[in-house]
Amino acid sequence: MSAPADPAPLPDTSPDTLRPHARLIAFSLICAFLSAPGQTFFIAVFTAPIAASIGLGPGAMGALYMGATLGAAAILPFAGSWIDRLDLRLYAGLVLGGLALACFVMAGANGALGAGLGFLLLRLTGQGLMTHVAMTATVRFFTRVRGRALSIVGLGLPLSEALTPAAALGLIALAGWREAYVVVGVVVLVLALPLTQALIARKPRFNKPVRAEGAEKPSTWAAARQLASSRHFWLILPLIIFLPFAATGLLFQILPLAEARGWPVSWLGAAFIGFAAGHALGLIVVGRLIDRYGGTRLLPLMNLPTLAALGVLAGSGHPLDLIAFLTAMGIASGLAQSAVAAMWVEVYGVEQAGSVRSFAVMIMVASTAAGPAVLGALLEAGAGPAMIAGLLGASVFTFSGLAALSPAQQQR
């Protein structure tokens, strides 16, 4: 029997300008913004009152949160792969409904089990799937201006970093943490859900899953097999998990690092504004670079701002170094966010963009759970900021070198 024919190539119908598609960009940007309830920067303002309410200490809360994060990461490839099979309006509606449900579950939590389930659902639907909808919908629709589209859509994350923690603190002070979660859930259902549905109404090319003629039906296991058999994947894997690992660990341990370095803790508020601004700057800069060179080619270079941040961490104890450190980390996050999102579709195609990305993000999310524990163990073992910066810097050089050896680099 003859071998089956290769799938017919997809016609290139990608737009070459963003302006006529402002509604689609707005949809993805809002989805990125709405990932906030599942992001650590938002949940962090709730942890103390939740812990006091259910009778858990900081250590137990940290373990509960880590377990929920790992559980959400395990589910993400299966939930995320459905974006390649369902109409986007239906998929996004289900995710937003799940996010509202997660808020209501957390609001009703009366013990560790309820809080753990709430954290799991928030991490899955918020950090995992809302970001997944925003990035996957963007990369599979835009080709010629993919980088610029990603840079605008990605601004939803620094905007949420800058705005939502303060809003959450205000709600908690005004009504209590349970009521605050109820308000967030109601806003998602009453405002966000109809708004996002309206933005992509009557947009079949944007909403319909991409499928080449003769291509097999997308699936989680097909994406896993595709990645496992790819030399490119194994060469870039250490690099793409390094930044979320290092960034989460460094941010989680920022207080002991700042004290050891002699940085004024009172400057942390200004420093996190610098982080959000750096994140936005990284997104803006990388957009046109992706359109010109491609996300794959940029991968080995995306951690240059991380090296700059580690240099600051290893350097003097000047108060301004705290702001410089977090600003550089923010720039690195912006560069990596868009470059990695573009790389998946450049190398593995649009037909399984969601399945491939969700499987890879599972690994990246798992690395964020390990970062705080590893850096905490190093601090407890007596390692200072300079030693930690040196270890992480050596990892950047090693992993960037591996990524540069990828076959995909030679083809571009």
What does this structure look like?
It is a single chain. The protein is mainly alpha-helical. It is 77% helix and 0% strand. It folds into 2 domains: 19-208, Growth Hormone, Chain: A; 216-412, Growth Hormone, Chain: A (Up-down Bundle). It is globular, with a radius of gyration of 21 Å. Residues 1-13 have low confidence and may be disordered.
List the helices and strands and how they pair.
Layout: H1 22-33, H2 40-54, H3 58-80, H4 88-107, H5 112-141, H6 146-153, H7 156-175, H8 177-199, H9 204-207, H10 220-228, H11 231-252, H12 254-261, H13 268-293, H14 295-298, H15 304-314, H16 319-348, H17 353-380, H18 385-404, H19 407-410
Short description:
It is built from 19 helices and no strands.
Beta-strand content estimate: under 5%
What is the total tally of β strands? 0
Poorly predicted sequence stretches spanning 5 or more consecutive residues: 1-13
Q: What is the C-level CATH assignment of the largest domain?
A: Mainly Alpha
Helix content: over 70%
CATH architecture grouping of the largest domain: Up-down Bundle
CATH topology of the largest domain: Growth Hormone, Chain: A
Mean pLDDT: 82
Category from helices, strands and their pairing = mainly alpha
Alpha carbon gap, first and last residue:
36 Å
